[in-house]
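User: ok so my PI wants both of these folded by tonight, can you help

Assistant: No problem, let's get them done. Here's the first:
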Amino acid sequence: MLAFPERYRSVLVTAVELFDPDGAGWVAPLFRADVRLALGVGFAALTLGTLYAGYRVAGATDAWRTDAAETGLLWAFFLAVPPVLAIGLYFALWHSLRHLVRLLALDSAAADALESGSDGRAVRRLVRDATPMTVGALLLFGGLAVAVPQTPGSVAEVGGLYLVLLAVVTLPHVGVVSWLDRKQGL
């Protein structure tokens, strides 16, 4: 929205119009330069405030420095790469891989399998654990496709529906990750 406003607007309007063909009128004010600037400043302040809060809790540890560096890298990445490509690459190559590694580490049998060189056994356990949530997400995606007033007919519309799915699963995902954080004492 900050670096590629027209592309972002196109994606947003496509997603909104899947559910309300005449409902994208509210989108235009979000893309005024002053609103985009205020949103960017607000998000930057929120990012810096979160990093500062982490610093106050953890100090300048390696973990905090890693979080700060990754946060800066993600800011640069999302400012430099067009939105749909950025989201696709981020989820496929960063976000999901980090969660898969974390799930492997939390499963003591899978972690033991990795340590003993039984990569196949560890991957089978990961697939077993990830399959129900993956199937659930695919069913939800199918349900969304049925629920929209107009059937997505273009690649852009299917992409817009996928982004709506990401928005729908974000809150439960945050809940699961928060639970994992507590379980790991983070």
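One down. Here's the second:
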Amino acid sequence: MAKQWEEMTPAEKRADLDSKWLSPPEAKYANAEAEKEFKARVQRILDAVNMKQPDRVPVVPMVGFFPAYLAGLTPYDVMYDYDKLMSSFSKFVLEFKPDGHLSVMNSPPGKAHDILDYKLYAYPGHGVAKEHSYQCLEGEYMKANEYDALIDDPTYFFLTGWLPRVMGALDGLKMLSPFTNMTEMYGGFTGAALIPFGLPPVKAALKALMDAGDEALKWVGTVGAYGAAMTAAGFPGFFGGGTKVSFDTIGDTLRGTKGVIMDMYRQPKKLMRATEQLTPIMVKMGANMAKQNGCPIVFIPLHKGADGFMNDEQYKKFYWPPLRDLMDGLIAEGCVPFPWAEGGYNTRLKVIKDSPKGKVVWGFDTTDMAQAKKILGDVCCITGNMPIATLSVGTPEDVKNSIKKLIDNCAKGGGYIMMSGAVVEDVPPDNLKMMIDATKELGVYK
């Protein structure tokens, strides 16, 4: 009898996810060649992840809305027309042939955002032009004096405190009582907890959630169809899930950069206690998605820990402990943490060398890759950092020269995946095509 997930060791969980990624149980390939190519691409990536030397360097561009631009569309078009979303992203993968694709998760359902009156991002047609990508609108969505409420009950705080502030249509949720007020007691106990659900503002908020949910279901149908179509054609998805380090959950989502920096000085103990409280939630977020999608790699975009945001001692005190705990928690669930160090991480390399050996993939944006390989080469697989500036304004020859330099600096012995340093948006198609083709040409191991 097969073991239940909870009975498996971390190694058994990882083997299970690897197996499902390599041979998806419900995959329907277009032909035998597509199945062969699919397995070869996954194995190539897994070999690099496991610090082995594959047949060649895998190449996986971090694309955002590039497929929309390639198809002559705008980001607005693919956020509001799911047929266009499907056709444009499929066109990119089938024409450019990367070793892995990033699904269509960077193109969320625009109408669902409209329904909820979403305020944390400006997005195409709403705060930014339809032709451009979205932009984070940081704010103090959690006040400095609300740490106790967050620590005591994160779910209740998000439901009644944070959501009404970032989604105007959900303002009524702040009237809800804690669900834990509902007990087995009859009469006034449960009855009192139910009263808010009869109030018009709460009803309006719940209706908005249901309407947005309906739209999200339409969108996720496209997400699923796209993934199945790419599998059928021989192209695997790269990420199984995503999550955040709890310091960034506070700094990006709740307090904003200014707020979290002030908290490091004014209330450091509460800040650290909050990161501890949120970390298990962040582990479950990433691990559950990875299990659902049958792929072990969990994307963790890193923001506030970059060079210049805090000094080395602050990084070691506030940022590294919750990040290390997050990675350990994901590994225990059979996942491969993929922290993506946005900006520079040159001053952090010696600290992150303490990452769990052979179980993590570190991605880099503007970090010195030769130094990253030197310091982390015997610890973990590294990826990046094809310069986004070169992809944006350089020539194909410039791109090829950058690829050669990265392969020379990073690929020896395996444990390297070619990726762009940042999300690829409106760049010349010939440049991105060169990134992929040059890696396939120059990245062959002999």
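The beta strands are 121-124, 127-128, 135-136, 241-242, 297-302, 336-341, 361-364, 381-383, 416-417. The chain has 19 helices and nine strands. Good luck tonight!
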